[in-house]
Amino acid sequence: MASARPLEALETYLHEVRSRLHGLSASEVSEIVQELRSHVLDAVSGDASEARIADALRKLGSAQEIARMNMSMRVATRSLTHRSPLRVLHTLVRLAGLTVRGAIVLFISLVGYGFAASWLITALAKPLLPREVGLWMLPDKNGDLSFSLGSHGLPTVGHDLLGWWIVPIGLLVGFAAAYLTYRFDLAAIRRMAARRLGGNQITSAGA
Amino acid sequence: MKTSIPDPADADLAKWEVQLRKGSLGLAVLASLWGGRLYGLEMLKTLQDVAGLAVPEGTIYPLLSRLSAAGFVESEWVEAEAGHPRKYYRLTPNGRLYVREIANTWLDFTSGLNKLLAPLEDKSHGKRKTA
Fold first, then answer.
1. CB-CB under 8 Å, A194 with B22
2. What are the structural domains, with CATH classification, of chain B?
């Protein structure tokens, strides 16, 4: 019969894993924790001594890493099976809280969607404010030219480069940028999920 | 005095090995289930004993979760004689088709490549690595 103390170490470990599985459903958390418990009990083969439990937990990996791998994989899997752009973006927000790479991808994604939105909004606003909205070429204080998309409030100063063409071009560029950003997000999530599996730690026994 | 000069090709080789192992881990896990249902630790032992793959233990469950979401494996909890429940995994019919397909693709690919690589084989390779 195992003494309480080694199993206490197991329960502490599982508690730490559980506390790091933010945002997963209660049933998912329970499933992960129950499977880890079962794994450790199998690994010690009935000899639940302090040393055996500690060894089994060491082989399993730190609670932080285990939680992170499970979170990343489940969150990524969910977004790849429910591929709505909002779901994908939500996944990226979650991954950004877990990894630096996730934060970088989220930043790039926000820039991409921001770029898309600026073209779409300009295209849609053109019929409402035809003299103020467009792709403007503006002279600055030094006499150099700069470009501005949207409304700059000084229609008499700048030159509207596209005129009414901003509507179809803006819609085309906007939707294309949004689509490419979405595809980039999906690919990045897939790569991050694969990296989380720690391929660099898999070793050949003969090596 | 003996000095060791780092080989720039070592880094490339390490990267290549990582990609190879990462890419083949899913196939290895699915193939380990070909003979019937297994629980996590059994699967790890099979990978180690049969294929010589030492997989970090904690990585197997997120991978199984992904394969399960993809519909290639299914699982069930079974009350084991060991005194605690175990989660067993088995291939779904779709998973059996899929693993057979990628196994054949792998075998076709490697048999052709092996013929090409045969003249390059260095018999002392394993000894040198373990030395």
1. yes
2. 26-114 (1.10.10.10)
